[in-house]
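Notebook p. 47: complex prediction with pyridoxal-5'-phosphate.
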Amino acid sequence: MAYDISRRFLLAGATGLSVAGATACASGASALTETTEGAFPPEKVAVENPYLLGPPEGIALLSRNENPYGPAPSALKMIEYAGSKGAYYTSQDAVKLLATMIAERHGVAPEQIAITTGSGEALSAIAMIYGPNGPIVAPRLFWDTTALYAVNLGMATIDRVPLKADMSTDLVAIEAKVTPETGLVQLCNPNNPTGLVAPEAELKAAVKRMAAKTTVLVDEAYMELADDPDANTCIPLIKEGHNVIVSRTFSKIYGMAGIRMGYTISSPEVAKKIQATAMSWSPCTSYAAAIGCYNDEKFISFSKGKVREAREMITTTLDTLGLVYLPSQTNFVYFKSGKPANDVQKAFAAQKISVRGQYMDYVDWTRVSTGKIEDVERFCKALPAIVGA
Ligand SMILES: Cc1ncc(COP(=O)(O)O)c(C=O)c1O
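Predicted complex, structure tokens below:
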């Protein structure tokens, strides 16, 4: 049996593989979203990946906002060590060490950190904690998978606020909706799939006012990729005592999407609630990897450099083609191809390039992730013919 598995997964070639297979595997959109379809519907095609993990050979995987240059060597070394201790439940020492490292970096107390199996787990827990209190007020287009988790359990509703004409989050309209009966305000900064960072002063002022009425969650999964994370993060508001939760992940800049590690920063009381609501105990390998690379500045700046290089390749191509795109500060670019996004996705798939399909009714907008430089090159070469330029 073991032989069969290794043959099937490790030796099989890429022949007959569809790019959809790469997209279907671990897309981050759980089966739960099948109940209520939101901005991020699950990919519907399931094709076996004979390589078991990672994209099948020959597939340019540019649909999931991963960092293919990770995990960092500093993380891999620790994963190997953790594997050798895999017989044991994760020690509290490891949990405390990671919480302390995170707290030190952000100038908060370790009790303010909740550590979860990817930030998605914390975000789902938050939706379940606050959803029953009243609607989750959010921009119409945001990474809604975890809010939908609570919706599908009958524990939340989402009050979606239309984006502004420039596709940015309408903070004024969101604030106008917020009352003490609001369960939660959920913002994503930088936002997914737009890649836009909210104007710092306006965001912080609005968040402070809204946090006086209800809890404000700012999902900062991509913040380390932004031009100036220190200026744009809402973590200082937590230190000032505002009712704010910030979530971060090791899935993006740290290149550990498959390893699963994320965290929130909040008041100690809220951190305790999130930790108590989270449903899993993260593997020792995840803790070890996170401890290994959290302060690996060399890897972080290397990754940021690769993302910038790839993003520039994409935007230069879009400029040449005269296509409109949003000024992203993330590892993806949302652009207006002028063609139905699902057709564009299929056309790229025919060339073994995986990009995202349509979000909601944004019919002719496509999201492409930065990835390996050679894969982005393939995207840039294929784009003109696909958009008919
Ligand atoms: C905005 C945003 N937040 C959170 C997540 C979840 O990340 P993870 O659960 O891997 O930490 C994603 C995943 O793509 C995302 O785009």
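Notes: The chain has two domains: 2-29+48-71+298-386, 73-293. The CA atoms of residues 115 and 263 lie 4 Å apart.
Next step: compare against the earlier run before touching the bench.
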